Task: inverse folding
């Protein structure tokens, strides 16, 4: 090849590179303008150009705006990290292996807990450390979507799926130089999201392959969590999978875990779970099943005891009227009325406690919903969320489907948030 040909090839390569940089700069400007327009004009009036960003990015922007997230504010540090948490124990060896495999790649691995707080950072190339430190992308800092807006750790948790956030698609200005592929980490037994994983690089060296890589690494961490699982939870998971084929929603529980496909009952706290499980465990089971009334949910369930008795018992509840239970208030879930029906097995001299007669252990059977308890104090994020939902409902004349779209959430999520924040239709 002659020197003239080499020169022409170099010039052509330079032209292509220059054009690529120019195109990216134009796109970055368009993305930045669209995000600013959404912030300044509001969720209803702003109109984003079609196909400018992926659907999950636009939805995340809308959630961020609805929470009044400040794009110029940095993350804050949240307490100390417990090195003995399950997700850190499960992920440690896997992160070590991926850090080794990514040598010379200029990529960084981030692991967050279920709240979006960074609990581990693995830098492959030391020269990336100063820029990441300046962005506070460090262990202990809160990278939840509520605190920082759209990013590779908090957004996968909220979206419950893999996301690829590039440059100015980040809601926070300090992250605009990064590209982050992130995935939620779901516990293989409970199905609950227990954290997120992100692979980050400088936006100039980003590759779509990062999405496949982070998905694979997240899968490996989920597998490690399953290997760590208690044998009783594995048995519970098998029972749940077998019962999910029922035409009605089900809930199964052992002494430490609840699994359910009924959203209104997915928000058990530890106290309510322990109270119900202990009550059912101490019930004198003369039959294989019994009927249980749940007046505060406007439904009832068939309860069966499966497996061994005592501390290893598994209880399965099949709900016969899920529509009423779905529409029940979340605060009523904490006050379920554990009573036997009149036609329940009468051989037992130890009936379940009546709602009006105190409690079992730490579980109070009185319905908090029936008492008309006062609205609890809300955090700053909850107040912002409540205001945004009220504004969206007002703008859409109460149309919940349209309001959910404006807020970047699903309609089911909107109903759940309305119940939790005591927002009436």
Result:
């Amino acid at each position: 090849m002659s020197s003239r040909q080499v020169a022409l090839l170099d010039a052509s390569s330079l032209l292509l590179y220059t054009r690529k940089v120019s195109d990216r700069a134009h796109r970055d400007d368009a993305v930045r303008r669209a995000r600013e327009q959404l912030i300044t004009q509001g969720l209803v009036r702003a109109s984003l150009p079609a196909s400018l960003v992926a659907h999950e990015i636009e939805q995340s922007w809308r959630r961020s705006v609805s929470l009044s997230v400040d794009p110029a504010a940095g993350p804050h540090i949240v307490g100390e990290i417990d090195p003995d948490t399950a997700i850190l124990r499960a992920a440690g060896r896997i992160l070590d292996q991926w850090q080794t495999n990514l040598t010379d790649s200029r990529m960084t691995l981030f692991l967050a807990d279920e709240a979006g707080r960074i609990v581990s950072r693995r830098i492959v190339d030391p020269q990336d450390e100063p820029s990441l430190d300046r962005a506070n992308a460090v262990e202990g800092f809160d990278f939840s979507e509520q605190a920082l807006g759209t990013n590779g750790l908090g957004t996968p948790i909220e979206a419950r799926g893999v996301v690829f956030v590039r440059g100015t698609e980040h809601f926070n200005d300090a992250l605009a130089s990064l590209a982050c592929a992130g995935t939620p980490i779901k516990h293989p037994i409970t199905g609950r999201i227990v954290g997120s994983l992100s692979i980050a690089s400088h936006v100039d060296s980003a590759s779509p392959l990062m999405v496949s890589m982070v998905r694979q690494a997240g899968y490996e961490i989920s597998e490690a969590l399953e290997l760590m699982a208690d044998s009783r939870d594995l048995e519970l998971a098998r029972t749940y999978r077998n019962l999910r084929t029922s035409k009605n929603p089900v809930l199964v529980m052992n002494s430490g875990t609840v699994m359910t496909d009924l959203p209104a009952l997915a928000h058990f706290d530890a106290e309510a779970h322990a109270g119900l499980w202990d009550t059912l465990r101490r019930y004198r089971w003369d039959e294989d099943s019994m009927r249980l009334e749940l007046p505060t949910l406007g439904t009832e369930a068939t309860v069966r005891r499966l497996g061994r008795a005592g501390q290893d018992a598994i209880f399965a509840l099949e709900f016969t009227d899920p529509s009423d239970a779905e529409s029940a208030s979340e605060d009523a879930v904490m006050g379920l009325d554990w009573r036997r029906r009149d036609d329940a097995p009468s051989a037992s001299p130890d009936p379940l406690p009546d709602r009006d007669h105190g409690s079992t252990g730490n579980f109070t059977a009185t319905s908090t919903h029936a008492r008309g308890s006062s609205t609890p104090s809300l955090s700053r994020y909850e107040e912002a969320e409540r205001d945004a939902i009220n504004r969206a409902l007002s703008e859409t004349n109460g149309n919940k489907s349209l309001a959910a779209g404006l807020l970047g959430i699903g309609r089911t999520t909107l109903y759940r948030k309305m119940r939790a924040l005591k927002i009436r239709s």
Q: What stands out?
A: The chain has 15 helices and 13 strands. The radius of gyration is 26 Å.
